[in-house]
Design brief:
With 149 residues, the protein is an alpha+beta fold. It is 30% helix and 32% strand. The protein has a 4-stranded antiparallel β-sheet with strand order 1-4-3-2.
Amino acid sequence: LHLVRSNPIASALAAPQPAVLAVTGPGGYVSPDWYGLPDQVPTWNYVAVHLRGTLTLGPPDEMEDLLARQSAAFEARLAPKRPWTMDKMGEGVADGMMRQIVPCRLAVERVEGTWKLGQNKAEAARLGAAEAIAARAPDLARLMRDPPA
């Protein structure tokens, strides 16, 4: 990962620090109408993972490769768009921007996952809500249909 140099976390990384990185997965609003049951309330279904470990500064000479890999991973999701690459930036612009950010590494020591996918509802109600949300949030609907154990 990388942080803007002015972020207080970046300054604290003069020494390794314990850290938690929260990563969110699919999530979305669930209307109580979708359950087909009386006396329900609106809710938000979600998947999240907390990565706990030690955060350290990475070597500055790895910054360009880190950004190129991160950008390539996200740009690939936009296909068929032609991927953005740093060579599209004007001369010296990338160097100036890279001086404003610092590379970091999180040595993951523990992974904690949590999800709320309507698993407390009767199967028919959960599946009905999954069907209603499918067009808006297909990944969330897939997980609601078959929640993790």
